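Student: Hello, beginner here. Can you help me understand the protein record under this note? Any guidance would be welcome.
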Amino acid sequence: MLNICNISNRKSKYLLLTFLFSTSCFSSSEINSFIEQNKLYENSYWLKLLHYRNGTSEIDSNNFFISKDGKTNKKKELFETINSLKSGQNDVLCRFPLRVKWLKQNIPQLEKDIVSYSCPKLNEYLGAIDAKQVTMVFPTAHINSPASMYGHTFLRVSSDEETPLISNAINYAAKTTDTNGFIFAYKGLFGEYEGRYSILPYYEKIKEYNNLEQRDIWEYDLDLKQDEINRLVLHAYELKDVYSDYFFFKENCSYNILWLLEIARSDLDLVSHFTLKTVPLDTIKILKPYDLIKKSKFRYSSMKKMKHILEEKIENKEYLNSFVNDNEPLQEALSIDDKVSYLDFKISYLQYQRANNDYDKKEYLSKYLELLKQRSTYSQSSDYDIKAPKNPLDSHGSARVSFYYSSDDSFELSAKPVYNDIYDISDGYLQGAYIDFFEANLKKEKDENIKLDRFTLLKIKSLAPRDMFFKPLSWGIDLGYEHFKDQSDYFKIKPETGLTYGNNKDFVYLMIGSNVYYKNSDQLYSIGSSIGLVTNRFDNIKLGLKYSYDKYNKSLENNEFEVFGTYKLDQNASLTLKYINDNLYKENDEKVKVGVSYYF
């Protein structure tokens, strides 16, 4: 009887094991069949999770993929991910939490086959982030840095809207130790940097942009539901140790931030709008059609605060320089309001000097505490009503097409992909900072064929106003091809430097520079100067004038005078009128040009 029972027992165990094995095989086969039938590896969200565009992933580091072919083979990547989940290998459960979550939601019976284990680092990360609100942050352009003249965008994730400074920032940037803006721009053009996501305290970014680089900041609160925010946060974790090649024009900070928003909301189609260029301003505007922006907030820089105190608050500036730089005591002749403004300015200026390493920490703290003590003797609050500039959301598009008719019966058609020049209405852009790439200008003169009159590779003009404390140099560079004064074709380079005085409403600039025109059979070069005035004080109207003189080789002298006015027709259209008097080849060669520009 015992033997019969043992035999029966063994048969039962065998049948049970056979059943479990066959059920497991059936389950695995059923999962594979389900994936193939539904072509899950072609699912648009799976492609977003892998950052796929045009059949390949834009992530370049191998550690983002489970399959060695994952960068180009989305199907292999899906099956290798599932196999790793079943075997407990490659730490997929902890490394790719959103990928795993999506697979569980979309593949029946997968969850019971997954080898489960704890993920303490992931849990710690989620507890620290505790995201309830997401904000798109736009530090505006840096006037004296070519690599930062377009601005920058990153995300802020907050657990409490009332305390934004203790929230976290999700940033994408080129990993580099280069400090020269021109080197950064050059390497960035050709993808020579690794671009990496990072997560760091928001107050550090405020310190970097508001206080160190003196850039104003716009914050745009986004209308995302909690489950959408959770997806964004999980995907940010998946990206924290990977890189993609950084390209200054296209796959830059703003472009890669858009991937996170697409992950948050599956119906968003953002990155596909940017095929040739990605300008931070454009990536903010693309959010408007989706009603993603709930509200906007302006956070002014410490530089803007100091400029405001200098220009708007202090009536008597006679003793300010000696008080700030020579540590002279406050003059009793000053009004109470001026004394308060003197102290507030000096406190901010001291912080500015510390940011520029003019003082070590010990000396700075000593001076800072002494100023605070002196400021506390006055009861007036420091209430500075600093008006926000025009919202970048209301600025014109970064690309432009223009058509001009001239009084000499010539026509011109020009097009550029970016950005903003001295003739454009600067609402939403940084006043005095002008930068253009790859502008082509076609011209049709009377009784002649259409010709390429000018092609600009790069044109930058930085007109930064000076005052009694801040004395930046203005500068410019113009590089490209030009049909010089309708005479001949040359390669052109024009460097210049100078001084600018005024403010955002009105400024005057004085520049000295050189024009160098080169071709194999002929060279022209000059030394010259120019003086100009720009005013933005009228709504929707920009006025300017410029006089320049150049002394060329070959006994050529050139005086040129120009007056222009631009009228804003609507957000993306303007009308420009120019009067030009140029005496290079004949005296008082006058012409009037009228043009229409469309921005997109």
Notes: The radius of gyration is 31 Å. The longest helix spans residues 2-38. The chain is about 30% helix and 30% strand. The chain has a mean pLDDT of 91.
